[in-house]
Amino acid sequence: MTINTTTELGTLTGNWVLDPHRTTIEFRTKMLGIFPVKGAFQAHQGRGQLAVDGTVDGSLVIDAASVNTGITKRDNHLRSADFFEVDKYPTITYVVSKATATNTGQVELLGQLEIHGRARPVTLLADVRTTAGSLTVSTVVDIDRSNWDFGKGPGVKNRVIVNAHFNRA
């Protein structure tokens, strides 16, 4: 079901736990601004809580070392101090502080994205689908990695596609 109203958002009240095995996090970028690169990360953990009064608290934790583009040498470089520096910053985390149903049937999620030890506000527009006892939150966001001080070159956009699957706790 797509969330169409704030009332329907209220039907999702309760506690939710991420199913990392059914969650996908993919990215697309361009190496040297020219060559397309696709890859994926693995979700480490996540949770969500929606209270009856509409307040929300949730998080998605991604294992930065799980970066996988299919090329070992490139993946090791992405794990190095030149990019994710996974020894020092092992996770990428998004913490949701507010969710609002839109008139288009999507949910606007306000939160903080922490990458490479820096947290920045990021608003996501997400589709929420529910089935008996579970929900999937899907979103696409463009991230400028220079905002988190990693990788070379300002203005390099990375498209991230998330399909996070949660089960009612």
Break the fold down into its secondary structure elements and pairings.
Blueprint: H1 6-10, E1 14-18, E2 24-31, E3 35-50, E4 56-68, H2 72-79, E5 91-101, E6 107-115, E7 118-131, E8 134-144, E9 157-168
Antiparallel strand pairs: 1-3, 1-9, 2-3, 2-9, 3-4, 4-5, 5-6, 6-7, 7-8, 8-9
Number of domains: 1
Compute the number of strand runs. 9
Radius of gyration: 16 Å
CATH architecture, by name, is Beta Barrel
Distance between the termini: 19 Å
**Mean of pLDDT:** 87
List low-confidence stretches.
1-7
For the report, how would you describe the main beta sheet? 9 strands, antiparallel
Describe the protein in words.
With 169 residues, the protein is mainly beta. It has one domain (6-168): Lipid/polyisoprenoid-binding, YceI-like (Lipocalin). Helix content is 8%, strand content 59%. It contains two helices and nine strands, in the order H-E-E-E-E-H-E-E-E-E-E. Strands 1, 2, 3, 4, 5, 6, 7, 8 and 9 form a nine-stranded antiparallel sheet that branches. The radius of gyration is 16 Å and the shape is elongated.
